[in-house]
Design goal:
By secondary structure, the protein is α/β, with parallel strands linked by helices. The protein has a domain of 72 residues. The protein has 11 helices and 12 strands. Strands 1, 2, 3, 4, 5, 6, 7, 10, 11 and 12 form a 10-stranded mixed β-sheet that branches. The protein has a two-stranded antiparallel ribbon with strand order 8-9. Helix 1 runs parallel beside helix 2, helix 6 runs parallel beside helix 7 and helix 7 packs parallel to helix 10. The longest helix is centred in the last third of the chain and has 19 residues. It starts with a strand and ends in a 14-residue tail after the last helix.
Protein backbone atom coordinates (compact mmCIF):
# COMPACT_ATOMS: atom_id res chain seq x y z
CA UNK A 1 0.00 0.00 0.00
CA UNK A 2 1.31 3.43 -0.97
CA UNK A 3 0.07 6.41 1.03
CA UNK A 4 0.78 9.93 -0.21
CA UNK A 5 0.37 12.89 2.16
CA UNK A 6 -0.37 16.28 0.60
CA UNK A 7 0.11 19.45 2.66
CA UNK A 8 -0.73 22.85 1.12
CA UNK A 9 1.37 25.55 2.78
CA UNK A 10 1.18 29.32 2.89
CA UNK A 11 3.59 30.38 5.63
CA UNK A 12 3.03 28.99 9.14
CA UNK A 13 6.48 27.41 9.51
CA UNK A 14 5.97 26.72 13.24
CA UNK A 15 2.70 24.88 12.61
CA UNK A 16 4.22 22.86 9.77
CA UNK A 17 7.04 21.69 12.06
CA UNK A 18 4.52 20.20 14.49
CA UNK A 19 2.63 18.48 11.67
CA UNK A 20 5.86 16.95 10.34
CA UNK A 21 6.68 15.66 13.82
CA UNK A 22 3.29 13.93 13.97
CA UNK A 23 3.73 12.44 10.50
CA UNK A 24 7.06 10.95 11.52
CA UNK A 25 5.34 9.35 14.52
CA UNK A 26 2.65 7.50 12.53
CA UNK A 27 2.39 3.78 13.14
CA UNK A 28 1.46 3.52 9.46
CA UNK A 29 3.86 6.02 7.86
CA UNK A 30 3.19 7.65 4.54
CA UNK A 31 5.24 6.60 1.53
CA UNK A 32 5.67 10.13 0.20
CA UNK A 33 5.12 13.64 1.49
CA UNK A 34 4.27 16.42 -0.93
CA UNK A 35 4.27 19.97 0.42
CA UNK A 36 2.63 22.34 -2.06
CA UNK A 37 3.84 25.87 -1.43
CA UNK A 38 1.48 28.76 -2.15
CA UNK A 39 4.19 31.44 -2.10
CA UNK A 40 5.40 31.23 1.50
CA UNK A 41 7.85 33.86 2.70
CA UNK A 42 8.73 32.53 6.17
CA UNK A 43 10.93 29.59 5.23
CA UNK A 44 8.24 26.91 5.48
CA UNK A 45 9.29 25.25 2.16
CA UNK A 46 12.93 25.09 3.30
CA UNK A 47 11.85 23.39 6.52
CA UNK A 48 9.80 20.88 4.53
CA UNK A 49 12.76 20.03 2.27
CA UNK A 50 15.04 19.61 5.25
CA UNK A 51 12.55 17.14 6.73
CA UNK A 52 12.46 15.03 3.57
CA UNK A 53 9.37 16.38 1.81
CA UNK A 54 9.10 16.96 -1.90
CA UNK A 55 8.19 20.63 -2.29
CA UNK A 56 6.03 21.73 -5.21
CA UNK A 57 6.02 25.47 -5.78
CA UNK A 58 2.85 27.16 -7.04
CA UNK A 59 4.73 30.47 -7.38
CA UNK A 60 1.89 32.43 -5.79
CA UNK A 61 -1.02 31.99 -3.42
CA UNK A 62 -3.23 30.03 -5.80
CA UNK A 63 -5.62 28.91 -3.05
CA UNK A 64 -6.19 25.68 -1.17
CA UNK A 65 -8.09 23.96 -3.98
CA UNK A 66 -5.49 24.59 -6.69
CA UNK A 67 -2.65 23.52 -4.40
CA UNK A 68 -4.38 20.29 -3.39
CA UNK A 69 -5.25 19.50 -7.00
CA UNK A 70 -1.60 19.94 -7.99
CA UNK A 71 -0.55 17.60 -5.21
CA UNK A 72 -3.11 14.95 -6.16
CA UNK A 73 -1.96 15.16 -9.78
CA UNK A 74 1.62 14.42 -8.77
CA UNK A 75 0.97 11.91 -5.98
CA UNK A 76 1.75 8.27 -6.59
CA UNK A 77 -0.21 6.69 -3.78
CA UNK A 78 -3.34 4.59 -3.92
CA UNK A 79 -4.29 6.32 -0.65
CA UNK A 80 -4.05 10.11 -0.50
CA UNK A 81 -4.12 12.09 2.74
CA UNK A 82 -4.89 15.81 2.52
CA UNK A 83 -3.74 17.72 5.58
CA UNK A 84 -3.85 21.33 6.65
CA UNK A 85 -0.42 22.52 7.71
CA UNK A 86 -1.72 23.48 11.17
CA UNK A 87 -2.90 20.04 12.30
CA UNK A 88 -1.25 17.41 14.49
CA UNK A 89 -2.20 13.76 14.08
CA UNK A 90 -2.37 11.10 16.75
CA UNK A 91 0.17 8.34 15.95
CA UNK A 92 -2.54 5.87 14.86
CA UNK A 93 -4.46 8.34 12.67
CA UNK A 94 -3.58 6.78 9.31
CA UNK A 95 -3.78 3.19 10.52
CA UNK A 96 -7.31 3.67 11.88
CA UNK A 97 -8.60 5.47 8.78
CA UNK A 98 -7.15 3.00 6.28
CA UNK A 99 -8.70 0.15 8.29
CA UNK A 100 -12.11 1.79 7.74
CA UNK A 101 -11.72 0.64 4.11
CA UNK A 102 -13.98 3.35 2.65
CA UNK A 103 -13.65 5.67 -0.37
CA UNK A 104 -12.77 8.41 2.12
CA UNK A 105 -12.51 8.80 5.86
CA UNK A 106 -11.87 11.43 8.48
CA UNK A 107 -11.42 11.40 12.22
CA UNK A 108 -12.43 13.53 15.17
CA UNK A 109 -10.64 16.86 14.89
CA UNK A 110 -10.18 18.70 18.17
CA UNK A 111 -9.38 22.36 18.58
CA UNK A 112 -5.98 23.26 19.98
CA UNK A 113 -6.65 26.93 20.55
CA UNK A 114 -4.96 28.40 23.62
CA UNK A 115 -7.00 29.07 26.72
CA UNK A 116 -9.46 26.19 26.32
CA UNK A 117 -10.01 24.29 29.57
CA UNK A 118 -11.54 21.16 28.00
CA UNK A 119 -11.38 19.20 24.77
CA UNK A 120 -13.40 21.09 22.17
CA UNK A 121 -14.54 19.86 18.77
CA UNK A 122 -13.07 21.65 15.77
CA UNK A 123 -14.78 19.41 13.23
CA UNK A 124 -16.24 15.99 12.56
CA UNK A 125 -18.05 16.08 9.22
CA UNK A 126 -19.96 18.61 7.14
CA UNK A 127 -23.66 18.85 6.37
CA UNK A 128 -25.62 21.27 4.18
CA UNK A 129 -29.02 22.66 5.15
CA UNK A 130 -32.02 23.83 3.14
CA UNK A 131 -30.82 27.38 3.81
CA UNK A 132 -27.80 26.63 1.64
CA UNK A 133 -25.36 26.85 4.55
CA UNK A 134 -22.60 24.38 5.23
CA UNK A 135 -22.58 23.22 8.83
CA UNK A 136 -19.56 21.65 10.54
CA UNK A 137 -21.08 19.28 13.08
CA UNK A 138 -19.80 19.83 16.60
CA UNK A 139 -17.68 22.88 15.89
CA UNK A 140 -17.01 24.75 19.13
CA UNK A 141 -18.82 22.19 21.29
CA UNK A 142 -17.21 20.24 24.17
CA UNK A 143 -16.19 16.76 23.13
CA UNK A 144 -18.46 14.00 24.39
CA UNK A 145 -20.28 10.75 23.59
CA UNK A 146 -22.51 12.33 20.92
CA UNK A 147 -19.41 12.78 18.76
CA UNK A 148 -18.01 9.34 19.54
CA UNK A 149 -19.94 7.10 17.14
CA UNK A 150 -18.61 6.08 13.71
CA UNK A 151 -21.06 6.86 10.93
CA UNK A 152 -21.30 7.07 7.13
CA UNK A 153 -20.78 10.59 5.78
CA UNK A 154 -20.84 12.34 2.42
CA UNK A 155 -18.68 15.38 3.17
CA UNK A 156 -15.45 15.18 5.20
CA UNK A 157 -13.60 18.36 6.14
CA UNK A 158 -10.35 18.33 4.18
CA UNK A 159 -8.52 19.44 7.32
CA UNK A 160 -7.20 15.91 7.83
CA UNK A 161 -8.91 13.47 5.47
CA UNK A 162 -7.88 10.27 3.71
CA UNK A 163 -9.06 9.29 0.23
CA UNK A 164 -8.67 6.40 -2.16
CA UNK A 165 -6.96 7.81 -5.24
CA UNK A 166 -9.53 6.18 -7.50
CA UNK A 167 -12.24 8.41 -6.00
CA UNK A 168 -10.82 11.42 -7.82
CA UNK A 169 -11.17 9.62 -11.14
CA UNK A 170 -14.89 9.20 -10.42
CA UNK A 171 -15.73 12.55 -8.80
CA UNK A 172 -13.01 14.82 -10.12
CA UNK A 173 -10.77 17.18 -8.19
CA UNK A 174 -11.62 20.21 -6.07
CA UNK A 175 -13.15 23.08 -8.00
CA UNK A 176 -10.46 25.81 -8.08
CA UNK A 177 -13.16 28.47 -8.49
CA UNK A 178 -13.86 28.10 -4.77
CA UNK A 179 -10.21 28.92 -3.97
CA UNK A 180 -9.95 28.25 -0.23
CA UNK A 181 -13.36 27.79 1.44
CA UNK A 182 -16.30 25.40 0.91
CA UNK A 183 -14.48 23.63 -1.92
CA UNK A 184 -14.55 20.52 0.29
CA UNK A 185 -18.31 20.88 0.76
CA UNK A 186 -18.75 21.17 -3.01
CA UNK A 187 -16.77 17.93 -3.37
CA UNK A 188 -18.93 16.28 -0.71
CA UNK A 189 -22.13 17.25 -2.50
CA UNK A 190 -20.74 15.72 -5.68
CA UNK A 191 -20.08 12.52 -3.74
CA UNK A 192 -23.63 12.58 -2.37
CA UNK A 193 -25.06 13.06 -5.85
CA UNK A 194 -23.05 10.04 -7.03
CA UNK A 195 -24.19 7.96 -4.04
CA UNK A 196 -20.65 7.63 -2.66
CA UNK A 197 -20.23 7.76 1.11
CA UNK A 198 -17.25 7.61 3.42
CA UNK A 199 -16.69 7.14 7.15
CA UNK A 200 -16.37 9.40 10.17
CA UNK A 201 -14.18 7.44 12.57
CA UNK A 202 -13.83 9.20 15.94
CA UNK A 203 -11.13 6.82 17.22
CA UNK A 204 -8.77 8.63 14.83
CA UNK A 205 -7.96 11.93 16.50
CA UNK A 206 -6.25 15.06 15.20
CA UNK A 207 -5.79 18.52 16.67
CA UNK A 208 -6.22 21.67 14.62
CA UNK A 209 -5.21 25.23 15.34
CA UNK A 210 -7.63 26.57 12.71
CA UNK A 211 -7.54 29.57 10.34
CA UNK A 212 -3.81 29.87 10.87
CA UNK A 213 -3.22 31.40 7.43
CA UNK A 214 -5.63 34.33 7.66
CA UNK A 215 -7.14 34.26 11.15
CA UNK A 216 -10.75 33.80 12.23
CA UNK A 217 -13.19 36.21 10.60
CA UNK A 218 -10.50 37.79 8.47
CA UNK A 219 -12.10 39.99 5.82
CA UNK A 220 -10.81 37.84 2.95
CA UNK A 221 -12.13 34.69 4.62
CA UNK A 222 -15.56 36.30 5.01
CA UNK A 223 -15.61 37.46 1.39
CA UNK A 224 -14.72 34.03 0.04
CA UNK A 225 -17.18 32.14 2.23
CA UNK A 226 -19.94 34.64 1.43
CA UNK A 227 -19.34 34.26 -2.30
CA UNK A 228 -18.91 30.49 -2.19
CA UNK A 229 -22.18 30.01 -0.30
CA UNK A 230 -23.87 31.39 -3.43
CA UNK A 231 -21.76 29.18 -5.70
CA UNK A 232 -22.89 26.08 -3.78
CA UNK A 233 -26.50 27.03 -4.48
CA UNK A 234 -25.70 27.59 -8.14
CA UNK A 235 -23.83 24.30 -8.58
CA UNK A 236 -26.16 21.97 -6.71
CA UNK A 237 -29.66 23.34 -6.00
CA UNK A 238 -32.28 22.81 -8.72
CA UNK A 239 -34.63 25.65 -9.55
CA UNK A 240 -37.49 23.94 -7.74
CA UNK A 241 -35.52 23.84 -4.49
CA UNK A 242 -34.44 27.46 -4.81
CA UNK A 243 -38.04 28.54 -5.33
CA UNK A 244 -39.45 26.34 -2.57
CA UNK A 245 -36.93 27.37 0.08
CA UNK A 246 -36.10 30.92 -0.98
CA UNK A 247 -37.14 32.28 2.41
CA UNK A 248 -34.98 29.78 4.28
CA UNK A 249 -32.06 30.60 2.01
CA UNK A 250 -32.53 34.35 2.49
CA UNK A 251 -32.89 34.03 6.26
CA UNK A 252 -29.83 31.78 6.56
CA UNK A 253 -27.62 33.98 4.43
CA UNK A 254 -28.72 37.11 6.33
CA UNK A 255 -28.09 35.40 9.66
CA UNK A 256 -24.55 34.58 8.66
CA UNK A 257 -24.14 38.12 7.35
CA UNK A 258 -25.24 39.46 10.73
CA UNK A 259 -22.60 37.30 12.42
CA UNK A 260 -19.98 38.74 10.08
CA UNK A 261 -21.22 42.27 10.78
CA UNK A 262 -20.84 41.75 14.52
CA UNK A 263 -17.18 41.01 13.87
CA UNK A 264 -16.68 44.08 11.70
CA UNK A 265 -16.88 42.23 8.38
CA UNK A 266 -20.19 43.43 6.93
CA UNK A 267 -18.55 44.97 3.86
CA UNK A 268 -16.61 41.82 2.84
CA UNK A 269 -19.84 39.83 3.30
CA UNK A 270 -21.68 42.19 0.94
CA UNK A 271 -18.86 42.07 -1.61
CA UNK A 272 -18.88 38.28 -1.49
CA UNK A 273 -22.63 38.11 -2.08
CA UNK A 274 -22.35 40.56 -4.97
CA UNK A 275 -19.57 38.50 -6.53
CA UNK A 276 -21.55 35.31 -6.04
CA UNK A 277 -24.61 36.84 -7.70
CA UNK A 278 -22.51 37.95 -10.67
CA UNK A 279 -21.00 34.47 -11.04
CA UNK A 280 -24.25 32.57 -10.43
CA UNK A 281 -25.21 31.96 -14.07
CA UNK A 282 -21.69 30.99 -15.12
CA UNK A 283 -21.35 28.64 -12.15
CA UNK A 284 -24.67 27.01 -12.96
CA UNK A 285 -23.85 26.48 -16.63
CA UNK A 286 -22.75 22.91 -17.15
CA UNK A 287 -23.32 21.94 -13.51
CA UNK A 288 -25.18 18.74 -12.71
CA UNK A 289 -27.67 19.80 -10.06
CA UNK A 290 -29.50 17.33 -7.84
CA UNK A 291 -32.96 16.10 -8.64
CA UNK A 292 -35.39 18.08 -6.43
CA UNK A 293 -36.70 15.07 -4.50
CA UNK A 294 -33.24 13.60 -3.95
CA UNK A 295 -31.85 16.89 -2.65
CA UNK A 296 -34.88 17.53 -0.43
CA UNK A 297 -34.45 14.13 1.17
CA UNK A 298 -30.72 14.71 1.72
CA UNK A 299 -31.12 18.19 3.20
CA UNK A 300 -33.95 17.16 5.53
CA UNK A 301 -31.87 14.19 6.71
CA UNK A 302 -28.94 16.54 7.30
CA UNK A 303 -31.03 18.87 9.43
CA UNK A 304 -32.39 15.94 11.42
CA UNK A 305 -28.85 14.74 12.07
CA UNK A 306 -27.80 18.20 13.21
CA UNK A 307 -30.69 18.24 15.70
CA UNK A 308 -29.86 14.73 16.92
CA UNK A 309 -26.10 15.03 17.30
CA UNK A 310 -25.58 18.72 17.82
CA UNK A 311 -28.55 19.63 19.97
CA UNK A 312 -27.40 23.19 20.68
CA UNK A 313 -28.63 25.79 18.21
CA UNK A 314 -26.17 26.06 15.27
CA UNK A 315 -23.84 28.97 15.93
CA UNK A 316 -22.38 31.28 13.31
CA UNK A 317 -18.93 29.71 13.45
CA UNK A 318 -20.23 26.18 12.84
CA UNK A 319 -22.47 27.32 10.01
CA UNK A 320 -19.74 28.36 7.63
CA UNK A 321 -17.37 25.43 7.71
CA UNK A 322 -14.25 27.58 7.67
CA UNK A 323 -10.87 25.95 7.88
Amino acid sequence: MILSAIVPVWNGREFLARLLDSLESQTLPGSELLVVDNGSTDGAPDLARARGARVISMGRNAGFAAAVNRGIGEAGGDWIAVLNSDVELAPDYFSILTAADAPFATGKILSMRPGQSCATIDGTFDLVTRAGLAFRVGHGRPDGPRFGQPRPIFSPPWTAALFRAQLFRKIGLLDPAFESYLEDVDFGLRCARAGISGIYEPRAVARHYGSAALGRWHTEMVRLISRNQVLLLARHYPRETLMRHWWRILAGQLRWGAAAARRGAAWPWLIGKWQGARQFSAARAGSQVFGPEVLEQLLCANEGLIRKIDSDAPDSDAAHGAK
